[in-house]
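W.,

You were right to be curious about this one. When I first looked at the sequence I had no strong expectations either way, so I just let the prediction run and decided to look at it fresh. Below is the sequence, 385 residues in total, followed by the output.
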Amino acid sequence: QHKQHLEIMVNTMMHETFYSCGTYENESDGIYAGWTCHPGSFSDCMPVWNEKKNIVLIFTGENFADQDVFNKLKAKNHRFENTNAGYLVHLYEEHGVDFLKTLNGSFSGMLIDLKEKKMILFNDRFGVQRIYYHESKDAFYFASEAKALLAVCPELRDLDMKGVGEWLACGCVLENRTLFNRIYLLPAGSAWTFSGSHIPDKKSYFDVREWENQPWLEKEFFYEKLKETFIRILPRYFRSTQPIGISLTGGLDTRMLMANIILAEGKYPCYTFSGIYRDCYDVKIARQVAGISSQTHQSIPVDAQFLDNFGTYAERTVYITDGYLDVAGAPEIYVNAIARKIAPIRMTGNFGSEVLRNIRWLKAAKPLQNSFTPELANLMDKAAL
């Protein structure tokens, strides 16, 4: 039954025929895991073993490391490729579970230490790479997408109305709940350890207060340090064995990106998502930025082909995002499929103004409450508080 469940869960996440996938089964320790990923991506090397074959890692996401990390591992005679996640298992060998503190990116995964008879389930500091989980009386189910759990646990196919109220009011579900009853999100910065039982020891390796409680910097000094750090770390994000396309907007973050990196002429094709009637502000500014940076630029319009197939894209959007993105997000699937043909990796910036300016993204709103039952409207009001 576990093998059947694993196969079903993996199949629910095979959204494209070109995805890579695989499974790891450890019947003696009761561990069954699978994965999907893009071919040639950082995670397309699973599962990763150490040299002694007693530690195995399954990882999804990215890690952007300095060259110094690779040099130190190779000095200790570890064998790996710099271009994929293979070296991460050796970081665990050298640092134990604290290796998670050294990672830089959005990620999630599981590490099985056969020598210590334990498994560690983890995610990044901010929980960007989601892990949904359900604790039953005899098993612990987890997946990157809620639909994988719903596929093998039909008893979970029931909406959590508190979560629905929060989603309607805030655009997201709060406090590690989800839209579904008895399915929760792994808290950000988690390192949950399983040892001889399906009941985990729920610990975290990172507390945001470590960063929030650092000494304040004077405004001018902060700016100089920010500029210095940004220029120093930016090149690591452009290291890739696959072509990179730059998704340009007129926003602060992508302009900062282009202003602080030296790009070989014509190496990084740029594009901007647009409408069909006229050039919007994003297209006009992005075209100028690409020209100054000696890169090509094209706009990708949400055009008649999208509109003719809107129903398909709308349904697919809701399904892929487990209901967290509504039909208004349907253009994302359409334009990103075109962008993938330009380059398999999309480089862009997000929330630059929210991070560096006093702009708040998460805001509570009140939809037309007379469209909802009094009970649900009440839950929406509570979420807005």
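Here's what jumped out at me. The two ends are 44 Å apart (CA to CA). And, maybe more interesting for your project: The CA atoms of residues 306 and 334 lie 7 Å apart.

Coffee later to discuss?

I.
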